[in-house]
Amino acid sequence: MAFCSYFQRGLFASRSVFSSPRQILGRNIHRGPHQRYGYNRQGQPPIWQDRRFWYYAGAAGTTGLIYYEYHIEESPTGRRRFNNVSPAYEKQIGQQAYLQTISQYQSQIIPAGSTKMDRDVRKVAQRLISATDTENNWEVHVIYAPDEKNAFVLPGGKIFVFSGLLSVTQDDDGLATVLSHEIAHQLANHSAEKLSQANLLGFLYIVASFFVDPNFLQFGRAMSTLLLELPNSRQCEQEADQLGLYLMAKACYDPQQAVALWQRMKAAELSSPPQFLNTHPSTDSRIENIRALVPQANMKRDAANCPSPDLTKAFFDGVF
């Protein structure tokens, strides 16, 4: 279930992105290089005093840099990032997470179309899906959980909405804000980006464990979380806010209502750690950023030939 929870990001969840160094690298990380290789006990000099070691290390480092640069790409907003996870593999792990989620909530999943709640969620999701212009095999599931205010989208287009979220979203525009944000995470391949970062950092920790004191390695792990993983997670959230806002505008929802939704989110949240310790931006900064993007989102809404928000709501209410 831990694998599945990696993808089930909550709107209010604030946690470190990865596990502890012991879990990533195993028990040997806590054993120093002399304990493992016994150079000094055998009267041999440390390996790094051998000139050949530096030749090999230089070749390996150069190869690593070439590999890293080869896998640099631009995100949909133009941000440079490392990604060595293929779309096929991302969908494969998304499918595994999907099956685990279905198994976990099987008794709580509302049958498709059986309730007004389910139909309302599907109506909003379908409008957003139509605006994505992608070929994912999209599926929508509503989970009856009145106390759970959450929604997430797995790689491959599997959408899950917990019923408790609807008490905060309140209307179609509010729900579209949340779903477009979660859909944007997958359109931007943020799951692949985070897995790629985990792959890279895990490899670097393994290499460092041969040469660095375990206590210093623990410190380095904490600093990488603070300086690399958490800022990257917040970047992904901000990117999903921007892409999601543009998506809901393209689907003829009212971007201004995204500000109102996050104001309700702020009222609903209990407390959160300081932003620099958080996987998500603070709600205040989120509201400020979204408000600044609303004019651009309205331009995209106009470009999609959407009628006024009131007429749009009346039209789609009549159709569905």
From TrEMBL:
Any one annotated GO CC term: mitochondrial inner membrane
Alphabetic keyword roster: Hydrolase, Metal-binding, Metalloprotease, Protease, Zinc
Reported cofactor(s): Zn(2+)
Cofactor binding notes: Binds 1 zinc ion per subunit.
Domain Peptidase M48: 118-293
GO terms classed as biological process: mitochondrial protein processing; protein quality control for misfolded or incompletely synthesized proteins
GO molecular function per UniProt: metal ion binding; metalloendopeptidase activity
Family annotation (PANTHER family): METALLOENDOPEPTIDASE OMA1, METALLOENDOPEPTIDASE OMA1, MITOCHONDRIAL
Family designation: Belongs to the peptidase M48 family.
Protein's UniProt name: Metalloendopeptidase
Organism: Coemansia aciculifera
